[in-house]
Design a protein that fits this description.
Radius of gyration: 29 Å
Largest sheet: 6 strands, mixed, barrel
Distance between the termini: 25 Å
Number of strands: 10
Number of domains: 2
Low-confidence stretches: none
Strand content: 15-25%
Mean pLDDT: 87
Shape: elongated
Structural class: alpha+beta
Length: 386
């Protein structure tokens, strides 16, 4: 009987194609918009992702997210180092600085100051140069994307393509000379500002003088020490906030979800995709069932039970759901692959695919429910009506 159900489904090609397209549309919109939303949220904590050599971030208790810098006294670093269980604790400066380009324009940049001795917290990869080159005089490392775009030198020819920044070039940072000694590969941030790495001492020289300059303390637990226990010990001892990498990421994402309209915008798009997919699929599947009532009536007259007919309808719904879901996810994946080297944020974890599959399953169930009642209440005598 199941093979008969599939022959009925594939036999009406026009309605079969329409049903599959409805499911495909819903699956594609849910997956694509969900992947863009996750990609944007991932960028909000890009600095945490790149600076993940430590186990714990220590900061002012009022810090709400990674970009919300509330500087501390440098003495806090020594207080943290004195806590039992701390393997090492290193300073990290994070702030904004203005770069003056060759064409006279200014560009705001994120500047990260790394521990002078260890250079812990540098870019996760290098396209040119070496992280150790930061120990040279006036040295900085610029992220690869910005070196090719926002910080690139203007073309000598009118209308020509900008010349990418390279090792050996110089920038003017807050009226200080800075020499590019490396091009790093850094994760794009939410604001997509250029990322500049240098040493902690040099960063505090570049930026305007303030009484407090220590942004964060990166802590690594000693071997055998439980990270969560150490985190709580730091908070109790110093009165500062101490968060693991994942906790800091979650805190940052929660801030953007609660204080921006991003979730609402993408939620509306996903909801519309789900609604449109449900309406199209339900309408087409219901019409498909009406057109095939005579076949269901024939089977019922031959002795097929309501349970068998119900299984046939569900099978038809699941088949178009599986095909449409696969096509929708495939189209969204192709779109994401094509946008890989563009500013578009696109991240597709397996959890998103599971959510898309569940949404499609719900669409299929709702579509099948519209038809099931018609099939169950069907009288076998309908077969003999003209």
């Amino acid at each position: 009987m199941m093979s008969v159900a599939l022959k009925m489904l594939f036999g009406d090609r026009a309605k079969y194609f329409g049903i599959v397209m409805g499911v495909t549309l819903a699956s594609m919109v849910i997956t694509q918009q969900g992947a863009i939303f996750i990609g944007i949220m991932t960028r909000t904590y890009g600095t945490v992702t790149d600076t993940g050599q430590g186990d714990i971030w220590v900061m002012d208790p009022k810090v709400q997210q990674i970009e919300d810098i509330k500087p501390m006294q440098d003495t806090e670093l020594f207080r943290v180092r004195g806590i039992q269980g701390v393997g090492w604790a290193l300073p990290l400066y994070k702030g904004l600085i203005r770069a003056r380009l060759d064409n006279g324009q200014f560009q705001n940049c994120n500047i990260l100051g790394l521990d002078d001795a260890t250079l812990t917290g540098g870019p996760p990869g290098m396209a040119q140069g070496s992280l150790s080159d930061l120990r040279r005089a006036d040295a900085i490392i610029v992220d690869e994307i910005s070196a090719n775009t926002r910080l690139a030198k203007p073309s000598p020819e009118p209308g020509g393509r900008p010349i990418p920044l390279k090792v050996g070039d110089t920038l003017e940072l807050n009226d200080h000379r800075a020499v590019v000694v490396g091009i790093g590969r850094s994760t794009r941030t939410f604001q997509s500002l250029p990322v500049i790495h240098t040493t902690y001492g040099r960063a505090t020289t570049f930026v305007p003088k303030e009484r407090k300059l220590l942004s964060f303390v990166l802590v690594k637990a000693a071997p055998g020490v439980d990270v969560e226990s150490l985190r709580r010990r730091i908070e109790l001892t110093t009165g500062l906030a101490a968060l693991t990498n994942q906790q800091f990421k979650d805190k940052t994402v929660d801030y953007f979800i609660k204080n921006t309209g991003i979730p609402i915008n993408f939620g509306i798009a996903v909801g519309l995709g789900f609604l449109i997919g449900t309406v199209i699929t339900g309408f087409m599947f219901y019409n498909f069932t009406l057109d095939n009532l005579r076949y269901f009536g024939t089977l019922k007259a031959m002795g097929a039970s309501d349970g068998v007919l119900l299984s046939m309808v569900i099978l038809q719904s699941l088949v178009v759901g599986a095909i449409g879901c696969g096509l929708g996810i495939g189209i969204a994946s192709f779109f994401g692959a094509r946008m890989a080297n563009t500013p578009l944020a696109f991240t597709m974890p397996w959890q998103l695919l599971a959510i898309a599959a569940i949404a499609v399953a719900i669409i299929c169930v709702l579509s099948a429910m519209l038809s099931i009642r018609k099939v169950i209440s069907l009288e076998p005598a309908v077969v003999f009506k003209q």
